[in-house]
Each structure stands twice: as structure tokens, then as C-alpha cells.
């Protein structure tokens, strides 16, 4: 492959230039450094954005900044008791933080969503934190950090948040709108794919890093059970290909009881018109969301690519997701890898799902915009599936453009040919995503930092929640 060394050097220098320091130590990177746009909160270090920078730093052998970030955000993690209903729940990790100087003192100020536009909850932050901890451990060999009491407690608190008793019967996680990369109202509340995939990666990480001690035993048992049920649920029910579409098309509805095939009561009429023509015979993907009487048929890129990397999609499904991307290249990759989701919501759907959000107009921003940061996951997934050429083509398509356009946050239009109307320039994860993609192709061993081996799914009980057969000993007298 052609090595545009100077472009990589420029990108590396840009990344180093946006490092945030605290007490003289590197602790993170700002989200964007665009002198022509208002800062809003782009001058803060976002957990999900920093994750991409962190993977690059780790690939470059720079472990200090990642270690500092992990320690700092662990300290920032919410310590509020869960019963205090107006405070972030214990274990929640901040969406972002900034370092402020007041009276000559440095203060680290976290944002759990209390300041963010529309007050969205960063559910994904704690999952990225765990994934980074695993990658840090692999590169540095410093397992001792993850084994310290503070880190073991941190892992348990995250699991507490996920395993809490809830109003729900699925192995997936129920979350509010905008709780991950798509952090605006976009009809992604409920059981969005990206959260479920990150949750799966986090569970596998917790399993690797929890110590074999009595304090952790219950958590290890819980993780073991959940990880298999989650994998089964996603592989079985989120999966979409032509066979599955045919099955759904002929679904019976209003079925009652335990042993029914359309147990979520999905109405075949909800299958969107675009899908029947668009779905290639050889491809498939994981749908965007699944809940009672609801299947969101949109293709969400980050969730699907991470599912390949984490082996949440099985081997055949992974190959079919990549086949779909190849078959529908001009829709999904187009001129700028790659679309955050497909297709865009339009008309009344757009009005109702986004609340008339003009930043999320059809084919813009989160609503079908093209996000160059996704290049690194495309490259990693292609590399994992033995298709480095595909990734090279995607990189070749973008690199000059990204430099000329000054590393925009996102692109607009069906083909991704317009720099996003409100896109920041010098967006850090665009720069880091490009560097990570190059590094993975040049040194495929880096793949292990973000991937998990395939493993068989083993269920410990029937998938359906245990049915109560009835009680005969209920006392009705006064006690
Ligand atoms: C936007 C993105 C979000 C990102 C943030 C900082 O809000 O939607 O995913 O973390 O910008 O770049």
C-alpha cells in the first residue's frame, strides 16, 4: 500500500497538540480544536472520543496518557447512592470532563449529561472505559492496575448499574434516547444495537479482569450468565437477512404464551419499503433496535462493526455484514467512509423521531451523515475478516480529502460529498480514526486491542423468563 507518511505525521502531530494536562500529566484529548467554530463543549475530553485517541496512543506504545485517563475518570465516576434520584447513579462514567484553573488551582470538572445539550445520559462511557482498561493492560502488561481495590470496585460498580433490578425481562439493556455516539433524540431509545454490543464487550472485559475472590464471585457468575443470553438474543433476534425477512413477512401476530415465534408481536406491515429492495441476497446485518412490537430496521454502522470485532456476530453473520457493506458500498461508504446509519429519517418520521431537529435533517449529522471516525472500525473489521484490501480502498478514498478539508467531524448528503453544515474542523476522533485505521493495516496485531475471540454460546436456562407455574400456599389471613 502507498504510505502517505507525511500525512500520518501531520495527523500524529495534530493529535499530540490537543492533549489535555492535569498537574503536568497528560490525561486526555479535546474533542475538537476548530478556531472558527464556537467551543460549546468540544474543548472538553469526551470519554467515547478519547477512546479512539487512546487506541492510537496504545498502538504507538504511549501508555501513560491512557493510564492517567483511566485513573482520573475512575475518580470522577459518580459516587452518588442510587436512591438519590436527581444525581447520576453510582458507577456512571462522565460523558466528558474539562480541566479548569480557578485561583491558581486546577479543577477537573465532569459532565454526566447535566450540561450536555438535551441532558442526554452517557451510558456508553463506562463501557468504553472498560474496553480501554483491557487494551491498556494488553499493551503495558500492567495488570496490577486493574487488580487494585479501586479498579476492582470500579468494575463492580459498573456491573451494579447494568445488573440492577429493573422493569424488564430482556438480557439487553434498556436505555434512554441519545445514550451513545448518537447523543440526540433520533428514535434510538429502548434497546439500541450499539449499546448492546458495547455492553457485550464490557461483560467480556469484566470477565477477564475481575479477580477470582469471594467479593467478585457473584459478579463473575452474573457476567457469565448474562454474556451468553445477550449473545443468543442478539444473534437470534436482531439478525436480518433475506431468510429472516421472509419469516417476518409471514409472521402471525397477536400470539399469546411462551412458545410462539413472533413473541415481540412485530407486525409485518412495519417492514419498510426500502428494505425489501435494498437487502442483498448474500448479505445481512443486525437491526438497530428491538423491543415490544418494534423492530428498527435501520442499519447502524458502529454497532454492526463492533459486533464483528467483538465476535458478537458469529463468523457467518460477520462475513454477511461485510458482504452487505461491499454490495451497498455506494450507500454506506459512498465518498466518505462511512454512514453513521442508513437510511435517513425523512418527512413525518424525521419530525416525530427527532422533534423537528434541524441539525439532524435527512442525510446530515446523525441522520444518515458520513462520519470519517468510523473508518478505523471499518478497517479493523475488514482486517479481522481477512479483507485488508477493502479497508485500503476505503482509506485511499478519504485520506487526501480529509487533509484538504481539515479533518471535519462529519459530511452531509447521500454520497457524503459536502462538509457537514455544522461540522467542526480538526475534530480529534476524525484524526485519530484515520491514524488507527492506518496502524491496524500496517500492524494487524493491533487488532487484538479491540477484538475478542469467537466463543460458543451456552445458555444456563430456557431463554424465556422462567414461567411461574402457580402457588398453592399463599396466606390471606392477617399476620
Ligand atoms: C457530538 C457527537 C458525540 C461526540 C461529541 C464530541 O455530540 O454526537 O458522539 O462525542 O460530538 O465529539
Structure commentary:
The protein has 479 residues and is of the alpha+beta class. The chain has a single domain (10-460), classed as Glycosyltransferase, CATH 1.50.10. The chain is 43% helix and 10% strand. The protein has helices at residues 5-17, 47-59, 64-76, 124-140, 143-147, 149-163, 193-209, 214-238, 242-249, 273-278, 301-309, 315-327, 329-332, 347-354, 375-384, 388-404, 428-442; strands spanning 19-22, 25-29, 45-46, 96-102, 105-111, 239-240, 285-291, 294-300, 341-342, 411-412, 418-419. The protein has a four-stranded antiparallel β-sheet with strand order 6-7-8-9. Helix 2 packs parallel to helix 17 (428-442). The N and C termini lie far apart (79 Å). The model has no long low-confidence stretch (mean pLDDT 94).
Keywords:
alpha+beta, 479 residues, binds alpha-D-glucopyranose, 3-stranded antiparallel beta sheet, 11 strands, 4-stranded antiparallel beta sheet, 17 helices, Glycosyltransferase, globular
Strand order of the largest sheet: 6-7-8-9
Secondary structure tally: strands: 11
| Strand coverage percent | 5-15%
SSE ordering: HEEEHHEEHHHHHEHHEEHHHEHHHEEH
Quick structural summary:
The chain has helices at 5-17, 47-59, 64-76, 124-140, 143-147, 149-163, 193-209, 214-238, 242-249, 273-278, 301-309, 315-327, 329-332, 347-354, 375-384, 388-404, 428-442, and strands spanning 19-22, 25-29, 45-46, 96-102, 105-111, 239-240, 285-291, 294-300, 341-342, 411-412, 418-419.
Amino acid at each position: 500500500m502507498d504510505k502517505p507518511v507525511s500525512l500520518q505525521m501531520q495527523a500524529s502531530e495534530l493529535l499530540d497538540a490537543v492533549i489535555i494536562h492535569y498537574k503536568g500529566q497528560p490525561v486526555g484529548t479535546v474533542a475538537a480544536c476548530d478556531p472558527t467554530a464556537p467551543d460549546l463543549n468540544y474543548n472538553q475530553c469526551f470519554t467515547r472520543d478519547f477512546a479512539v485517541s487512546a487506541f492510537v496512543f496504545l498502538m504507538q506504545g504511549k501508555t501513560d496518557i491512557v493510564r492517567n485517563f483511566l485513573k482520573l475518570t475512575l475518580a470522577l465516576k459518580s459516587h452518588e447512592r442510587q436512591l438519590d434520584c436527581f444525581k447520576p447513579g453510582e458507577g456512571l462514567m462522565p460523558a466528558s470532563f474539562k480541566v479548569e484553573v480557578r485561583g491558581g488551582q486546577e479543577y477537573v470538572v465532569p459532565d454526566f449529561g447535566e450540561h450536555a445539550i438535551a441532558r442526554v445520559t452517557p451510558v456508553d462511557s463506562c463501557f468504553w472505559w472498560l474496553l480501554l482498561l483491557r487494551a491498556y493492560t494488553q499493551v503495558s502488561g500492567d495488570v496490577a492496575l486493574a487488580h487494585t481495590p479501586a479498579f476492582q470496585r470500579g468494575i463492580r460498580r459498573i456491573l451494579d448499574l447494568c445488573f440492577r433490578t429493573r422493569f424488564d425481562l430482556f438480557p439487553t439493556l434498556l436505555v434512554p434516547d441519545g445514550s451513545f455516539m448518537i447523543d440526540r433524540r433520533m428514535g434510538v431509545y429502548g434497546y439500541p444495537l450499539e449499546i448492546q454490543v458495547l455492553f457485550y464487550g464490557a461483560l467480556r472485559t469484566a470477565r477477564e479482569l475481575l479477580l477470582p475472590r469471594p467479593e467478585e464471585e457473584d459478579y463473575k457468575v452474573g457476567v457469565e450468565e448474562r454474556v451468553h443470553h445477550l449473545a443468543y438474543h442478539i444473534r437470534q433476534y436482531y439478525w436480518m437477512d433475506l431468510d429472516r425477512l421472509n419469516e417476518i413477512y409471514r409472521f402471525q401476530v397477536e400470539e399469546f404464551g411462551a412458545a410462539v415465534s413472533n413473541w415481540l408481536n412485530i407486525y409485518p406491515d412495519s417492514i419498510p419499503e426500502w428494505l425489501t429492495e435494498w437487502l442483498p441476497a448474500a448479505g445481512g446485518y443486525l437491526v438497530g433496535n428491538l423491543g415490544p412490537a418494534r423492530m428498527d430496521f435501520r442499519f447502524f454502522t458502529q454497532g454492526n462493526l463492533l459486533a464483528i470485532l467483538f465476535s458478537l456476530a458469529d463468523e457467518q453473520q460477520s462475513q454477511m455484514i461485510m458482504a452487505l457493506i461491499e454490495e451497498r458500498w455506494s450507500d454506506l461508504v459512498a465518498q466518505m467512509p462511512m454512514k453513521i446509519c442508513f437510511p435517513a429519517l425523512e418527512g413525518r418520521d424525521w419530525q416525530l423521531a427527532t422533534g423537528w431537529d434541524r441539525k439532524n435533517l435527512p442525510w446530515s449529522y446523525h441522520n444518515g451523515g458520513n462520519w470519517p471516525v468510523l473508518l478505523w472500525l471499518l478497517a479493523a473489521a475488514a482486517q479481522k475478516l481477512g479483507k485488508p484490501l477493502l479497508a485500503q480502498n476505503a482509506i485511499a478514498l478519504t485520506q487526501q480529502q480529509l487533509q484538504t478539508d481539515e479533518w471535519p467531524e462529519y459530511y452531509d448528503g447521500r454520497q457524503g460529498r459536502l462538509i457537514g453544515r455544522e461540522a467542526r474542523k480538526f475534530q480529534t476522533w476524525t484524526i485519530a480514526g484515520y491514524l488507527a485505521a492506518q496502524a491496524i493495516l500496517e500492524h494487524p496485531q493491533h487488532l487484538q486491542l479491540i477484538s475478542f475471540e469467537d466463543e460458543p454460546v451456552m445458555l444456563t436456562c430456557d431463554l424465556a423468563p422462567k414461567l411461574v407455574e402457580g402457588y398453592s400456599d399463599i396466606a390471606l389471613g392477617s399476620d
